[in-house]
Task: structure prediction
Amino acid sequence: MTSTILRDKNIIDVVKYKWLWIAISAVLIVPGIIAMIYSSIIYHTHSPLKLGIDFTGGTLLQYGFEKQINSEDIIKMRDALKLAGIENPVVQVSDFNIASDIFNEIENKENVEITNLKSVVSIRTRFLDSDKANNETLKASNAIKDSVGEFVPLQVSSIGPTLSKELFKNAVVAMLLAFLAIVGYLTIRFQLDFAIFALLALLHDALFICGVFAILGLFFNTEIDSLFITAILTVIGFSVHDTIVVFDRIRENSRFLAKKKTFNEIVNASVNQTLARSINTSLTTLIVLLTLYFLGGETTKDFILAMILGIAIGTYSSIFNASTLLAMWRNRKAFSAKS
Result:
C-alpha cells in the first residue's frame, strides 16, 4: 500500500536527474562568480559588487526639472560637475511620474510645487562637504543650474566614510551570524549532514543573487545598499524554511520506510510530497513581489528584484539541490560502509 502511494505520487525523480540539477546550478552561478571576480579587480573598492553610498560614503543629490532631460543634458551636467571639482559622478535620469513616490511629502513639508515636474535627476558622488567655507553641495547645485537650467531641489542625503564602513561591517557580521544560527538550529533539529547541505543550498542562493547584481553593476551601474543586505537575509530565512519542510518529511519517512525503501526512494517521495506546497507558497509570494516591482516605487526596485530572484532560486535549491546532495552523500557513506 505504502509502495503504491509513493510510486503514484512521484512527479519528478529528483535523484535520478541529480547531475542535471547540478549543471543548471552551475549555469546560473558561474557567470555571476566571473562577474564578481572581474568587479573586484576593476572597482577601486575591490568589492565583488558595486557598492552604494551606504557602504562607501557619499552624497545623493536629486533635482526635479520641468522639461525632459536628454543625453545631451546629462553630458553637460557631467562636464559642469567636473569643472566644479566633483569627479566621476553617477548621473541617472528617471521620469517624474515613476519616481514621484519618493517625494510624496516634499510638497507638504517645504511648500514646493512639484506637480509640473517631468524629469528627476539623481546624482551619486563622493562625500560632499557642506561647510559654509567650502560648500561642495552648493557648488554642485550651481553647476547643474548653469548647465541645464532651473530645477526644484528634491533630496540631499549624505553618509560619511566612517559610518559607511561601520554599516558594511555590521551587514557582513549579520549575514555570518544568520548562517551560523541556521547551521546550529539544523544540527540540533536534524543531523550535521542535513545542516551542511542546507547551508550549501543557502550559499548557492546567495551566490546567485550576488552574481546577478554583480552583472547588473557592470552593465547598468546597479549599486547595492543596506536594503540589499536586508533582502539577502530575508531570502535566507525563506529558503531555509523551504529546506526544513523537505528535510522534515525526509526524516519522518526515514523512520517508517528505512527498512523497506532505499534512501533515494525516500528522498524522491519526500520531495514530491512537499512539491506542491513549496511551489504554491513561492508563487503567491512572487505574485505580490512582481506587483510591487512593476507598480511600486523606484527606490525599492532593486530590493524587490533581489527578493524575486531569491525566492525563485531558494525554491529551486530546496527542491533540487539540498535533497539530492543529501542523497548523494548518504549513498556514498553507505557504499563506503559496505566496502
